# Entry
Amino acid sequence: MTSVMDWFCAKMLYQSKQRTKKLIWMWTAIITDLMVLFMFKYFDFALGKSPLASSLYHQDAFAWMIELGKYVVPAGISFYTFQSISYVVDVYRGDEKPEPNVVKFMLFVSFFPQLVAGPIERFGRLHSQLFAKYSPKLGDIKNGGRLLLYGLFLKVAVADNLAGVVDVYYENPSIYKGGSSWLASLMFTFQVYYDFFGYSLLAQGAALLFGIHLMDNFNKPFIAQSVPEFWHRWHISLSTWFRDYIYIPFGGNQGGNLRLSLGVLLVFFTSGLWHGANSTMIYFGISQGVLYLFDRFVFKKVGADFTWGRVLRRIKTGVFFMLTLVFFRSQSLPQSFEVYGNLLDFSTYSDQQFLSIDPQVWVFLFVGFVLDHFIILNRADKWLGSLNILPRWVAYLFFITAVLLFGGAVNHPFVYFQF
Amino acid sequence: MNKETESHKQSMIWWKWALSRLLVLCGFFFILNLVYTETLYPHDIQKYSRVRNRIDSAFKEGDIIYLGESSNSSFNPWTDTLNQKISDYLDLYLPDRQVESITHEGYHPGLFKEMLNLLPDECENKVVVLGVNMRTCGPSAIYSSNEASNQREALFYSRRPALLTRTFMGLHYYDNRDAKERERLKFKHWRTKPIALKRVFHDDLDYYPHQTTLEWIDSLARIYGLPEELEKIKGMAGAYVKELAFVLDDENIRIQDLKEIVEICKQKKARLVYHLLPPNQYHANLLFKHLEKGSGANLSSFLEYNHQFLIEKFKEWNVNYIDNFNLEEANELNAQNRGSYFTDQWYPTEHYNGVIKRKIAFNIAAFISKKYAFELSNDTTVDTQLKQNNFPNWDIIMPLSYGGLTSEEWLSR
# Structure
């Protein structure tokens, strides 16, 4: 429904001569998209536990909407809504011409490899590839296969095993103290990263089998020396979307420090809300925004001129991110604060109970991290393709063994599927 | 001509390229399977499949294989000091036969079906006794949040290459729907499956107040202003409705599983005996006497209808069965003993004390011994064997059961 609406509005605004009319069509599309998103994702959250909520809950129509939001959220709604909005805005700005065929437009919105969790592609980039004449290339198929294998390794052997450890901690954080809490937080940081990075590679690999090149969504985020740099390397398609459609229209860097700060906070607040309809996600977003500003205005380039300084800056950025992820993972705000309390609890250095981690989890995490940050300079498919046949096949067989024999036993859907 | 030769050459190169890699992969999988089977597979079985190791030995050594869920393995902490299972009593009653049990909480015919596929092909003399718990046929059990882990476990009940089993587990290739999805299906069932059916209620349906299970749950939730003790009963009644207010039919997945089990046992020539476990009818009836007095809502109609349905199916499938549904010990004697013969006082389960367990075992033993001419010990012999291990006192009234009052007395305070 939203796709048809966006397609129609974009067509109408393109045909309109007056700016006001163009604006009306654009906002009609955006508001419709956001209303549908609101109904599915935020209605229940917005009502909260107010008396109004409980009275509405007993009215069939509203109870039905709440149930709808709980159980039948369309797959990837947050992703394709943004993709669709960017199309309308691009047409409004004159950057793109509208697609005359509604079915082709719907294919752009629902292209299956990136439908459920991105990368959020722009119309200009994806559309031209989708409808170009397809001639299968062996190189693309090989590279697609390599990305699929490496993505599967990161998801199944690394992220799913880490998820098992993190779940144990978050089932009952109160029985753990400082050591386990830091370990669980660190493991969750890598779990989210490898889960989402793995998914992005799988999406890229699947698309490449059809000759379609999707954008890179991650670029070694843990070598970032500052929070702003981190967000240039993490979930790039979302960060650039926020930059182009919220931050810059709000004033960007041009309106002085106050406007810049408000813009950053707005972006991160929206980002938090986009991630999930609950207060923990909003705290996650805002805390990232505050740290972003802290790095930009307070920390600046301190220590960036010497090697150890740069190393410490990287650690600092990683730790900042890790700490804010506590909000991301917790079921509720009280649980987040309990975990923060645990992180600061150094009353005894030995935990009452210590998280145990199987050795193979460490091995895969180490291999994944080293490969990703120190060996693969460009992208996994290119790196694998550049190796001689023997080391290449050793790598293939290693990844295959890890996936077949050491996949996490508990089913953990991709973290970003819920968005 | 040249172009054709060139294309042929190219195609040959491609095939060589693909085949060589395929061969390497096949060889690799073969070796990996061997290595895995000998090294990590036994650990994975222990870690992820709680009874897999029992299955082969039970099927090999047992003359009688008892398949059961928590009714077999849960114990009353005050009175079952001996921790005897139904299958243990069965063993005492049938001294010349080896009884082996495969039991775990939350198991159901869907899992037993997978296990029975592992029975040896020819096993004429083996008797398979399977406890049929009516509650496991209801939506609450079918869409239980534990089901994904049960299904993962069932991956190991197979003779496929170990590597494939591990891969299926790692890639979650089984019915891995999460708790939220199962909850949605359960609610859908409660909301859409009609329960006010003529075949269940023989009287005039115009007086029946609830069309679906969800309506019933909702109506209970809307009973306000109850005294404290009845408020507690309300919660318990809700649990009983959720667990037992359903109507069995041929579409029910558990009924289909039970039917398939009959086929598997026929194929393997095993002697299958179903025994129907008694639910807590005493509480099921009592609860609604006080909460929905005169409304016409009652659980006993469902229990009785489902009971008859199961019996009809057993007859239709031509399978041996023992009907313990109306067992005196689980009904009249349980009522006389203040509901104490069921371990769980606030939730519908089939967790019995020793009196019921022993009686169930006796009925099974009596049936089997008559049918297959096995020797049957009498009660005195069994008592002597039990007494050697400090005979339990089954007359203790459980502290949970209303502070010593009968349920009737407690409710009418």
Summary: Chain B has one domain: 59-138+193-411. The mean pLDDT of chain B is 86. The CA atoms of residues 22 and 28 of chain B lie 10 Å apart. The interface with chain A takes residues 24-25, 28, 32, 36, 40, 47-48, 148, 152, 163, 166-167, 169-172, 176, 178, 180, 184 of chain B (CB under 8 Å).
